[in-house]
Write a structure and sequence with these properties.
Blueprint: E1 2-7, E2 10-12, E3 18-26, E4 34-39, E5 46-51, E6 57-59, E7 67-72, E8 77-82, E9 91-99, E10 104-107, E11 111-115
Parallel strand pairs: 2-11
Antiparallel strand pairs: 1-3, 3-8, 4-5, 4-9, 5-6, 7-8, 9-10, 9-11
């Protein structure tokens, strides 16, 4: 089992920044990729960014150049630095961890990000 706890969401004005954190616990040695997804009201959950255990990152086109995902394996934590935030970034952001041994995705409870003036 893997548990994920997100933090760092909040209300920010357009153009502002936030940093999300996700701490993993449990069977963390089995985790390979970790990532962030988001879901806005009335929309499907979508990929924001992922990062492998070796630090290789991928991003959705909508956040490239604005968001940066990073991972501290010693702290079992993945971060999402979000800059130049836009109202369309408003969503519930979920942390994800993938365990290939059992082909299972784990999810956190989500942290709300609201971008509004």
């Amino acid at each position: 089992q893997v548990q994920l706890v997100e933090s760092g969401g909040g209300l920010v004005q357009p153009g502002g920044s936030l940093r999300l954190s996700c701490v993993a616990s449990g069977s963390i040695s089995l985790i390979t990729a970790m990532g962030w997804y988001r879901q806005a009201p009335g929309k499907q959950r979508e990929l924001v960014a992922t990062i492998t255990s070796r630090g290789s990152a991928t991003y959705a086109d909508s956040v490239k150049g604005r968001f940066t995902i990073s991972r501290d394996n010693a702290k079992n934590t993945v971060y999402l630095q979000m800059n130049s935030l836009k109202p369309e970034d408003t969503a519930l952001y979920y942390c994800n961890a993938y365990v290939p041994l059992i082909t299972k995705d784990y999810w956190g409870q989500g942290t709300q990000v609201t971008v509004s003036s």
